[in-house]
């Protein structure tokens, strides 16, 4: 627009001035007529057309005698006559009418020859010129058109065969660009827009729309029952402010081909799509969505025959109903606030590494036919694998319910146990760890499996089993927490010690013990269950506190010893027997909990 001779610093020309809706622009007297005339003048370079046709005539009729350049035909040398012919060439959209017009136009007789250069030849040369010529529309603001209007500028567009739209704006809802090579770069579409299947003008990224912004809904759908196939990749680095709706389309290539960044991807801003619906489609080439912020993603009933990479995306709501992934499906570092996997097939590798699911995740009737990777995946809600099918190995290493800080490629801190929707989910993950001899991680999900089993038990129908599970949970967190067992041993031993020494002189010590016990329980509940260092400090603090009250530690140790009854020959009373049984059980749990990195039982 800076090069436009018709624009001034205070006023834009008819090509570059802002346009409104069709009714408003039509109501401005001469507005759309002037746009048509100026666009025609923008496209037509008479001197270039004339020279091109002369060169072609020289080539085609070089063997004819007595042909002199000044006698080619008078139309080429008369700009007004040439203009009239070209206007008719663009105005007449009916092929039969156009052929009839040019056939009746005798241009030049060739001397001493039966041949002549007539209008059909001129029509052919004009066709050839626009097949070879690339027209660049730069910063032009295209209004809405009506096919019935005399000033319908699509009559000009349809005659062109290679078009580069550079930083243009459009209020029109549709361009019929069939059989035209086009490339839209840095353009804006201000109204709803329907994408047509056009040929592609050669460009670096091999896409139709590059770095364009669509302010309203964009749709791609077939107009009839015939198969509708798009042969080229459509979008690269485009922003969609509203909905992108694609239905019943087969893509020979991918839908998106965004720029690859050599630098850190974190420096790239999120592109935006309000809603992306890709329903009942077939994508034959790689499908890539990278660093997009999407409010709603729906890939229902679609089949992806090549690799799918939905990476580093921020998605509020995603639906994968009856979606088929025939090759790699990679969701690396993507975030989901709500997601639905139902009847989804992952036929090869599926990757959810470092993905974040801030919601419940239910892989309902989902098939994992290839390897599945959930390494360092964050799931804040419940995970449900009960109705999933795994036909290959899976990796759930360091799956966690809370996002961890990452420095120099390494995560800091221990993963936090996820929530499982049912016992079967915990069992499935536990079995995968067992099969890979990862006993430590398997123990995490063994504990979750036991917790779910505990919730399944009914107090009335399974009273004794319910009691056992409750006691197992309280005493050792299902054999997972040796510090908890040790605290129980110390607390029960001190409590038995005070009962045994039930005198007035031990009242202060007993009250101190009760106070300390309450403090220990509170601290323990507030402490991270995997913070062993903090738990050890808690135990030593407990022992030091009790030593302060001058309690005989040796007596406590003797009480803890389950074999003291045999070594000292003392009488075994009922209370002492119960105490010894409890201590023996707790010591057993202590041993099991300490050895949890090698075995569970």
Can you lay out the helices and strands and say which pair or pack?
Layout: H1 22-27, H2 31-43, H3 46-60, H4 74-77, H5 79-91, H6 95-103, E1 106-109, E2 116-118, H7 119-132, E3 135-138, E4 141-142, H8 154-159, E5 162-166, E6 169-170, E7 181-185, E8 188-189, E9 193-194, E10 199-200, E11 209-210, E12 213-214, E13 218-221, E14 229-230, E15 235-236, E16 239-247, E17 250-251, E18 271-279, E19 282-283, E20 287-290, E21 292-298, E22 303-304, E23 308-311, E24 314-321, E25 324-325, E26 329-330, E27 335-342, E28 345-346, E29 350-351, E30 356-357, E31 361-364, E32 367-368, E33 372-373, E34 378-379, E35 382-384, E36 389-390, E37 394-395, E38 406-407, E39 410-411, E40 419-420, H9 423-435, H10 439-456, H11 463-476, H12 482-500, H13 507-526, H14 532-548, H15 553-560, H16 564-568, H17 574-594
Helix pairs in contact: 3-7, 6-7, 9-10, 10-11, 12-13, 12-14, 12-15, 12-17, 13-14
Keywords: Membrane, Transmembrane, Transmembrane helix
Protein name: Pentapeptide repeat-containing protein
Pfam family, one: Pentapeptide_3
Features:
601 residues; 8-stranded parallel sheet; 5peptide_repeat; transmembrane helix
Helical content stands at: 25-40%
Distance linking N and C termini:
79 Å
Number of helices: 17
The overall pLDDT average reads 79
Secondary-structure-based class equals alpha/beta
What's this model, at a glance?
This protein is an alpha/beta fold and 601 residues long. The chain is built from 17 helices and 40 strands. The model is unreliable at 65-72, 526-531 and 597-601 (pLDDT under 50).
């Amino acid at each position: 627009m800076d090069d436009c001779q018709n624009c001034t610093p205070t006023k834009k020309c008819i090509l570059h001035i802002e346009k409104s809706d069709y009714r408003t622009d039509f109501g401005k007297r001469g507005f759309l007529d002037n746009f048509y005339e100026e666009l025609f003048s923008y496209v037509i370079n008479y001197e270039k057309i004339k020279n091109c046709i002369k060169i072609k005539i020289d080539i085609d009729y070089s063997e004819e005698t007595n042909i002199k350049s000044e006698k080619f035909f008078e139309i080429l040398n008369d700009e007004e006559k040439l203009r009239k012919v070209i206007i008719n060439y663009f105005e007449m959209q009916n092929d039969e009418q156009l052929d009839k017009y040019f056939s009746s136009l005798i241009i030049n007789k060739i001397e001493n020859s039966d041949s002549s250069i007539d209008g059909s030849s001129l029509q052919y040369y004009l066709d050839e010129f626009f097949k070879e010529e690339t027209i660049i529309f730069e910063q032009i603001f295209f209004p809405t058109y009506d096919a019935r209007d005399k000033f319908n500028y699509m009559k000009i567009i349809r005659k062109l065969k290679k078009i580069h739209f550079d930083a243009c704006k459009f209020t029109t809802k549709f361009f019929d660009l069939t059989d035209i090579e086009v490339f839209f770069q840095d353009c804006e579409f201000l109204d709803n827009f329907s994408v047509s299947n056009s040929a592609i003008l050669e460009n670096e990224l091999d896409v139709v729309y590059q770095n364009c912004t669509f302010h309203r809904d964009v749709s791609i759908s077939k107009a009839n029952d015939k198969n509708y196939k798009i042969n080229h990749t459509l979008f690269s680095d485009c922003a969609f402010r509203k909905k992108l709706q694609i239905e019943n389309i087969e893509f020979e290539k991918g839908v998106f081909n965004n720029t690859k960044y050599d630098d850190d991807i974190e420096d790239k801003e999120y592109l935006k799509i309000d809603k992306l619906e890709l329903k009942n489609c077939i994508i034959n080439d790689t499908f890539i969505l990278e660093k997009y912020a999407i409010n709603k993603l729906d890939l229902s009933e679609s089949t992806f025959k090549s690799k799918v990479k939905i990476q580093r995306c921020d998605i509020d709501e995603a639906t994968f109903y009856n979606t088929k992934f025939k090759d790699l499906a990679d969701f690396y570092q993507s975030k989901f606030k709500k997601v639905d996997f139902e009847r989804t097939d992952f036929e090869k590798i599926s990757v959810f590494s470092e993905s974040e699911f801030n919601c419940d995740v239910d892989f309902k009737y989902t098939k994992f036919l290839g390897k599945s990777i959930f390494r360092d995946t964050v799931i804040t809600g419940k995970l449900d694998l009960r109705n999933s099918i795994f036909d290959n190995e899976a990796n759930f290493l360091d799956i966690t319910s809370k996002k961890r800080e990452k420095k120099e490629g390494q995560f800091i801190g221990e993963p936090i146990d996820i929530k499982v929707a049912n016992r079967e989910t915990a069992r499935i993950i536990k079995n995968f760890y067992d099969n890979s001899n990862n006993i430590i991680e398997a123990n995490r999900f063994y504990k979750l499996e036991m917790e779910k089993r505990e919730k399944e038990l009914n107090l009335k129908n399974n009273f004794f089993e319910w009691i056992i599970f409750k006691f197992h949970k309280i005493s050792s967190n299902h054999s997972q927490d040796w510090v908890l067992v040790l605290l129980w041993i110390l607390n029960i031993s001190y409590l038995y010690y005070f009962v045994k020494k039930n005198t007035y002189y031990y009242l202060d010590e007993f009250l101190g013990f009760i106070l300390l016990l309450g403090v220990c329980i509170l601290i323990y509940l507030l402490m991270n269950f995997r913070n062993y260092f903090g738990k050890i400090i808690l135990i030593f603090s407990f022992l030091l506190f009790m030593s302060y009250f001058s309690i005989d530690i040796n007596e406590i140790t003797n009480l803890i010893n389950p074999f003291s009854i045999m070594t000292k020959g003392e009488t075994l009373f009922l209370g002492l027997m119960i105490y010894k049984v409890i201590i023996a059980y707790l010591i057993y749990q202590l041993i099991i909990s300490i050895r949890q990195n090698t075995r569970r039982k």
